[in-house]
Amino acid sequence: MKFTVQQFFQLFSTDEICLVHLMKTRFSETLDCPKCQKHGRFTKLKNMPAFACSWCGHHIHPMVGTPFQASHTPLQKWFYAMYLFTTSRHGVPAKELQRQLGVTYKTAWRMGHEIRKYMGKVDGNQPLAGTVEADETYIGGKRPGKRGRGAAGKTVVFGMLERDDSCGS
Fold this sequence. Notes:
The chain has 5 helices and 6 strands, in the order H-H-E-E-E-E-H-H-H-E-E. By secondary structure, it is of the alpha+beta class. The strands form 2 sheets. The protein has a 4-stranded antiparallel β-sheet, covered by helices on one side. Strands 5-6 form a two-stranded antiparallel ribbon.
């Protein structure tokens, strides 16, 4: 089932709803307080993007450690940008984020960069290190006319491999 834009805005209609969703996603609805160790619910603070322990008042800030941490951009715009990234087949250019979110190009570029960086950290493998070998080739049936990189109907295959330098080669 496809998650539509209308469904997105019904589900995430305000920044506060986005913050509560972020808290539930990262820490669950109930948790053990890191300070007093008591299990319970944390309640949303009125004037701060944080939640407080019902027992001792210890604060948890769900945006810390995320791309939204030091941002002045509303959380709903961040969520919508992530929605665009997850529903797009070919990525989302900064100009598109600028148009859809109503932010400056600089903000849109930074948001896209942070989302891509975080997705790579969360979903991707560790970056390759040391000696890295890379190669490309073009595959496809023989076609008359132009050959090589510019030939129509060819598919690019690209591979990278981290070489094990520990064997002394």
